[in-house]
Structure formats: structure tokens, C-alpha cells
């Protein structure tokens, strides 16, 4: 059995307060900066350019790492 634990949940569990609203990738409230790593964007808020060319932010309620790590700017 697989249970998805969002980055938003992990950040909050570590005591980092990240605001949220929809928690389904639609509002942009939970956005955080990305310093390194490749993001698997699962939202429908960021534009394709923001996701592919800039690759410097993600929506923590739904997005994931494509590699073994992501370095977030929180
Ligand atoms: S809380 Fe709305 S996009 Fe994450």
C-alpha cells in the first residue's frame, strides 16, 4: 500500500509554517522556492513556462521530487 505524504505536510511536521488553502494544486497559496533539484509538478496553477523554464518554485501541497532530493527555500 502506498500513502502519499505531501511536502506541505512534511514541512509542517518539521515546524515550518507554510500557508495553504485548496490543497489540490489550484490556488498557489502553498508556493515555496526551489534552490536545487527537479520538480514533478502536479498542480494546475503554474504556467508551463514557470514549471519548465524557471523551475524555481513549486506548490508544496501536490508537487514532488523527480530525483532523490529537492532543496527548498523555506
Ligand atoms: S494550497 Fe492551493 S495550491 Fe497548494
UniProtKB/TrEMBL annotation:
Coiled coil: none annotated. Gene3D superfamilies: 3.10.20.30. Pfam families: Fer2. One of its GO terms (molecular function) is 2 iron, 2 sulfur cluster binding. CDD domains: fer2 (cd00207). Residues 1-74 form the 2Fe-2S ferredoxin-type domain. This is 2Fe-2S iron-sulfur cluster binding domain-containing protein.
Amino acid at each position: 500500500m502506498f500513502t502519499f505524504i505531501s511536502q506541505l505536510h512534511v514541512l509542517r511536521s518539521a515546524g515550518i509554517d507554510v500557508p495553504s488553502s485548496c490543497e489540490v494544486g489550484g490556488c498557489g497559496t502553498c508556493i515555496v522556492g526551489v534552490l536545487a533539484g527537479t520538480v514533478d509538478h502536479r498542480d494546475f496553477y503554474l504556467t508551463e513556462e514557470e514549471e519548465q523554464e524557471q523551475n524555481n518554485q513549486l506548490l508544496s501541497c501536490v508537487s514532488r521530487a523527480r530525483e532523490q532530493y529537492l532543496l527548498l527555500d523555506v
